[in-house]
Prior knowledge:
Elements (H helix, E strand, L loop, with lengths): L6 H9 L13 H17 L6 H40 L1
Amino acid sequence: MKQVLDAQKVIQAIRHNIPVNIKTYTLPPEIEAQIEQILEIYLKDIGQIKVKDPLVYSLKELTANAQKANAKRAFLARESSIWKTQMTTKKE
């Protein structure tokens, strides 16, 4: 289901220095496209559309690294709890 982005709300947020937040637990292509649209609206508004491609690439790299870091943190937390359980069992 594709959401239509309200460009006027994005421009209003930009002009009033209001942060645009996106919370998601997964990063499907629809959300990536929405982030790219927000960036494009912002860059057009400030007259810097020429830097869109490098910024999109950087954002994709950052989100991919964040996903990997979160997966690693979840894995290590799970392994740590297993290790603590094993150590507690051995003491008894």
